[in-house]
Design a protein that fits this description.
- The chain is an all-alpha fold and 133 residues long.
- It has a single domain (6-128), classed as Membrane associated eicosanoid/glutathione metabolism-like domain (Four Helix Bundle (Hemerythrin (Met), subunit A), Up-down Bundle).
- The protein is built from four helices and no strands.
- Helix 1 runs antiparallel to helix 2 (43-71), helix 2 (43-71) packs antiparallel against helix 3 (76-99) and helix 3 (76-99) packs antiparallel against helix 4 (105-131).
- The longest helix is centred in the middle third of the chain and has 29 residues, at 43-71.
- The protein is elongated, with a radius of gyration of 17 Å.
Length: 133
């Protein structure tokens, strides 16, 4: 029986809204800097592009893992915590980049939380899948 992944859907909804905000932020920067493609060697443009790009690089795999775990019947509380951590991490990271292109506490926290969530999700996914054999 196919189960609709409600927690993953909510998380994905929030992430796509964040992605659109970062997309608009990069687009506004392109207009402001008259930069059609690339960053033009402008640090502000590079930061805007990376804020958007970093989310795009991480969101699909985390959401896929969440959906697979949710479909396998993993406890909703685990998925709610994972989704909340992911949303928080993806908000912290661009906030840190807005402040500085160098290492900041927000950027470090966002990247670290995403990385830990990815490792935990991958391990949990393998264990869950092996248990289904």
């Amino acid at each position: 029986m196919l189960v609709y992944p409600v927690i993953t859907a909510i998380t994905a909804g929030v992430i796509i809204i964040l992605q659109m905000i970062l997309f608009m932020y990069a687009a506004i920067g392109r207009g402001k800097n008259r930069q059609g493609l690339g960053d033009g060697g402008k640090p502000d443009m590079l930061k805007r592009i990376r804020m958007h790009g970093n989310l795009i690089e991480n969101a699909p795999i985390i959401l896929i893992v969440m959906a697979l775990l949710e479909g396998a019947g993993v406890a909703r509380s685990v998925l709610i915590v994972a989704g909340a951590i992911f949303v928080l991490a993806r908000i912290l990271h661009p906030l840190g980049l807005m402040k500085s292109a160098n290492r900041t506490g927000f950027r470090f926290a966002g990247a670290t939380l995403t990385m830990l969530l990815g490792f935990a999700g991958g391990i949990y996914l393998v264990i869950t899948a092996v248990g289904q054999l």
